[in-house]
Amino acid sequence: MNISLETKEAFSEVDEFLELLTDELRNKIPKDLRNLFKENKDNSYIKKINPNVSIKEQNLKDETLAIIALLNLQYLCQDEEEKERLKKVYENNENKYRDLLQIDFNDNNIFKKKYEESEDIQKENKSSISIKEYKEPIFKKIINKIKKLFHK
């Protein structure tokens, strides 16, 4: 299994997070899953998680937060009402994220932006292009007059 460095670092953060849990909570998470995090973490990456500071303020990786949220939903949360509430929160977050992607990558918006950019470039080019009047050099005029005399 080829795991990216970013994921290995996230596994390191998750493993450290799990070490901060009580034995009772930690044992709710399957041992195989805990071993997966432990065996595939980046041992050189050390993130000190402070248990006295909220998880939002820890500057954890997004992937770490997603894994912790999934572990919380699947294994740690025992109250069915709380699970349903969390599912709704996660679903709302996912919908907001999709809406943002839809706005950013909407075909019409992409082409509209490209069209506006090309119009701006065309306006700049038109304003920077100046028309020069072509003037024939004096020597060329004299040579052409001489040629006309011989052709008659």
Characterization of this structure:
With 152 residues, this protein is an all-alpha fold. It has a domain at 5-78. The chain has 7 helices and no strands. Helix 1 (5-20) packs across helix 3 and helix 1 crosses helix 4 (62-76). The longest helix is centred in the middle third of the chain and has 25 residues, at 80-104. It is elongated.
User: How is the main sheet built?
Assistant: none
From the alpha carbons, calculate the radius of gyration and give it in angstroms: 34 Å
Count of alpha and pi helical runs? 7
H and E string: HHHHHHH
Strand percentage: under 5%
Ranges where pLDDT stays below 50 over 5 or more residues in a row are: none
* Quaternary structure of the protein: single chain
Kindly report the average pLDDT value. 82
Per DSSP E runs of 2 or more residues, the count of β-strands stands at: 0
N- and C-termini, Cα separation: 90 Å
Estimate the helix proportion, in percent: 55-70%
Structural class, by secondary structure, is mainly alpha
Brief overview, please?
This protein has helices at 5-20, 23-26, 31-40, 62-76, 80-104, 107-128, 138-151. With 152 residues, it is mostly helical. It has a domain at 5-78.
Write the layout of secondary structure elements.
Elements: H1 5-20, H2 23-26, H3 31-40, H4 62-76, H5 80-104, H6 107-128, H7 138-151
Helix pairs in contact: 1-3, 1-4
